[in-house]
């Protein structure tokens, strides 16, 4: 592990408030050493950290050297803060790097994707040679439709092979893709098509979700009523359901299947745009996060190789995210393919047709690396331990987590029940904006602590600062920042440089501010505490929702918890908790008292919730994040705000009914 002196840990005294609060909150002492055999042949060792500490630009050059360049770059970094250009003058083709070069290296028969549809028995195996042909056909089709380098292509597809194929076809010709998650409404789709000024939309009749076909095309039709700029809509036939066919529509099989399976990949500039991906944030218009070509591919590929210890000859890697999110862009499509990995893609939900579907897939494909989200892990905990016991998961060797802070108990459950206590768990912190993993344990190096993202990756200068922007010492807490540019960083917000500056580079002078709270423990390891707006102020103490939630989940009866601060006449804000009990647990009269005492014992009396509600479900966005804003509405007895981004809005009705004040 690194020395602990890196990145100028300063000696300034942090704000007293954050010091006081955070010192009494963390008492996690469990540590899991890397398995000896994994450490012995790990892709990354302590030497990699030392190398990057000595010369980070040389380190980033070595990551770019893992790619195949049509023209080598002249300048590694041009930093006109906060605007970065990486590998300036270099030229490469992303699709060539992800597909063709592996075929040329004799690996055409290697499986790129095991695709598993939601209906059982509906699966496809796609080799790198297959992918090369499919991507070439799709690229030829896009060109026939008039798509040229720099044009924007909106993509609204279920998790079917045509989704990665479309992204690679765009990358191949230099068109900029803008994927809109298939669960979003027509209004969301329309605003994104407008903002990016997309010329073509790629969609499907529908996809399978929860055991039945779920339509997509009608949503596109509705969105396009007010999108005159869209010239063509290409429709994949997936479910065969009835759809309206309009003038602009053309079936994927009609235009793609008849194309030549050869397509010359032109080199593109390292800084040419690769894609736009919208992130909703908590307020205002969605932001079109812009990623470019060379630095993005170098960093996603290297981090995928490093953080998951990927051995492409033998590993079977499965990231359960939807390609509609950045996790899917970076760690289902670009990173894994650039590394020549074999991946699993699954179309549907984890409970279809039964709650063991994930483990059945792990067993079927002998998955060795699994990357999923805390929300999924807590759902599996809730379903009970006996479900996964029916499947052979001995192939697994590395587990990953992403999307929100993972509660220590969920981490330990994941490690023991899914990983058989032998697999390291990497808790990876990053964002749509960072493009690639920034903070994470390394499976062959780090003695990981449950719930901690641990240390910045080699080359990443992440730090924790107080509200004046001074580094906090070990044991302190404050705001996460990144001090130096990194290759996969967003380049701007599409069409709005000023908003890019204001959102990310204005809170602290010269530093990137991701919007997350964090603390650095006595050993110098990092704990992410969620968005800074998820901090409660109780009787003058800053308490993070994450820490109270983790304390609740550490009680044997609790599967999942969401905590909010509600206005309180006495304490300013009071803690209100919503909990879901584990599968076999009955709700008893004294459960609330038990849990309140448990939190007091774990975190201290100041963190004791005023109120604890046992609920059947929690409101979540489609990317699995808890919508605390709505819970705050309930806790403060207000009518509910906007519920349109919820996966299931009946959840809020169930919760409101349980709240005594709201009855
Ligand atoms: C926000 C970014 C990165 C892909 C998925 C989410 C939270 C993400 C962790 C983690 C604690 C995490 C942060 C971050 N987050 N991973 N391992 N520990 N928090 O991408 O939708 O852009 O969300 O997710 O708050 O800022 P995103």
UniProtKB/TrEMBL annotation:
Annotated keywords: Acetylation, ATP-binding, Ligase, Magnesium, Metal-binding, Nucleotide-binding
Binding site for CoA: 209-212, 327, 539
PTM notes: Acetylated. Deacetylation by the SIR2-homolog deacetylase activates the enzyme.
Residues covered by the AMP-binding enzyme C-terminal domain: 547-625
Disordered: region residues: 1-22
Residue stretches making up the AMP-dependent synthetase/ligase domain: 106-486
Classification via InterPro entries: Ac_CoA_lig, ACAS_N, AMP-bd_C, AMP-bd_C_sf, AMP-binding_CS, AMP-dep_synth/lig_dom, ANL_N_sf
SUPFAM superfamilies according to UniProt: Acetyl-CoA synthetase-like (SSF56801)
Positions bound to ATP: 403-405, 427-432, 516, 531
Record's catalysed reaction(s): acetate + ATP + CoA = acetyl-CoA + AMP + diphosphate
Modification type N6-acetyllysine: residues: 625
Amino acids binding Mg(2+): 553, 555, 558
EC number of the protein: 6.2.1.1
Biased composition (Polar residues): 13-22
Keyword Nucleotide-binding: yes
Top-level taxonomic group: Bacteria
Role description: Catalyzes the conversion of acetate into acetyl-CoA (AcCoA), an essential intermediate at the junction of anabolic and catabolic pathways. AcsA undergoes a two-step reaction. In the first half reaction, AcsA combines acetate with ATP to form acetyl-adenylate (AcAMP) intermediate. In the second half reaction, it can then transfer the acetyl group from AcAMP to the sulfhydryl group of CoA, forming the product AcCoA.
The protein, known as: Acetyl-coenzyme A synthetase
């Amino acid at each position: 592990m690194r020395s602990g002196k890196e990145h100028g840990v300063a000696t300034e005294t942090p704000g007293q408030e954050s010091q006081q609060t955070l010192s009494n909150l963390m008492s996690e002492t469990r540590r899991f050493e890397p398995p000896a055999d994994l450490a012995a042949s790990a892709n990354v060792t302590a030497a990699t950290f030392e190398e990057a500490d000595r010369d980070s630009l040389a380190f980033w050059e070595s990551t770019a050297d893992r790619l195949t360049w049509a023209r080598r770059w002249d300048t590694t970094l041009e930093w006109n803060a906060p605007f970065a250009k990486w590998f300036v003058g270099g030229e490469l083709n992303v699709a060539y790097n992800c597909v063709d070069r592996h075929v040329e290296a004799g690996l055409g028969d290697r499986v790129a994707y095991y695709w598993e549809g939601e209906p059982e028995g509906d699966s496809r195996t796609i080799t790198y040679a297959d992918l090369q042909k499919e991507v070439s056909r799709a690229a030829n089709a896009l060109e026939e439709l008039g798509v040229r380098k720099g044009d924007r292509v909106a993509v609204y597809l279920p998790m079917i092979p045509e989704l990665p194929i479309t992204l690679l076809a765009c990358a191949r010709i230099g068109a900029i893709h803008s994927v809109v998650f298939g669960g979003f409404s027509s209004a969301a789709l329309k605003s994104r098509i407008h903002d990016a000024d997309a010329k073509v939309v790629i969609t499907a009749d529908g996809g399978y979700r929860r055991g039945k076909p779920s339509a997509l095309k009608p949503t596109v039709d509705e969105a396009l009523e007010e999108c005159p700029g869209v010239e063509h809509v290409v429709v994949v036939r997936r479910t065969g359901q009835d759809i309206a066919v309009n003038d602009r529509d053309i079936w994927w099989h009609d235009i793609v299947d008849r194309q030549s399976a050869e397509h010359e990949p032109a080199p593109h500039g390292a800084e040419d745009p690769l894609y736009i991906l919208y992130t909703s944030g908590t307020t205002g218009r969605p932001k079109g996060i812009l990623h470019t070509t060379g630095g993005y591919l170098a960093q996603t590929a290297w981090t995928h190789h490093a953080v998951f210890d990927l051995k492409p000859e033998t590993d079977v890697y499965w990231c359960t995210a939807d390609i509609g999110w950045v996790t899917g862009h970076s760690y289902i499509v670009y990173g894994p393919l650039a590394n020549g990995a074999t991946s699993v893609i699954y179309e549907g939900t984890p409970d279809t047709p039964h709650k063991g579907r994930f483990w059945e897939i792990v067993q079927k494909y002998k998955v060795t690396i699994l990357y999923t989200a805390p929300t999924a892990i807590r759902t599996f905990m809730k379903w009970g331990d006996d479900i996964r016991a029916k499947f052979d998961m001995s192939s697994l060797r590395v587990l990953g987590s992403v999307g929100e802070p993972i509660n220590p108990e969920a981490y330990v459950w994941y490690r023991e029940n899914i990983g058989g206590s032998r697999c390291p768990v990497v808790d990876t912190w990053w964002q749509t904006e960072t493009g690639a993993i920034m903070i994470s344990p390394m499976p062959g190096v780090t003695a990981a602590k449950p719930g901690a993202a641990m240390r910045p990756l080699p080359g990443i200068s992440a730090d924790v600062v107080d509200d004046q922007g001074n580094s906090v010492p070990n044991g302190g807490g404050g705001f996460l920042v990144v001090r130096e540019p990194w290759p996969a960083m967003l380049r701007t917000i599409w069409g709005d440089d000023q908003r890019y500056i204001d959102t990310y580079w204005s809170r602290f002078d010269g530093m990137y501010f991701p919007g997350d709270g964090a603390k650095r423990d006595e050993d110098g390891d990092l704990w992410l505490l969620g968005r800074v707006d998820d901090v409660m102020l109780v009787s003058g103490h800053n308490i993070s929702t994450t820490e109270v939630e983790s304390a609740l989940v550490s009680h044997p009866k609790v599967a999942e918890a969401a905590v909010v601060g509600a206005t309180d006449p006495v304490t300013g804000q009071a803690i209100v908790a919503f909990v879901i009990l584990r599968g076999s647990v009955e709700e008893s009269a004294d459960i609330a008292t038990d849990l309140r005492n448990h939190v007091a014992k774990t975190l201290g009396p100041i963190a004791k919730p005023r109120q604890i509600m046992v609920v059947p479900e929690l409101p979540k966005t489609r990317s699995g994040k808890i919508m605390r804003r709505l819970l705050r509405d309930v806790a403060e007895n207000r009518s509910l705000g906007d519920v349109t981004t919820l996966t299931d809005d009946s959840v809020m009705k169930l919760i409101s009914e349980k709240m005594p004040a709201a009855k």
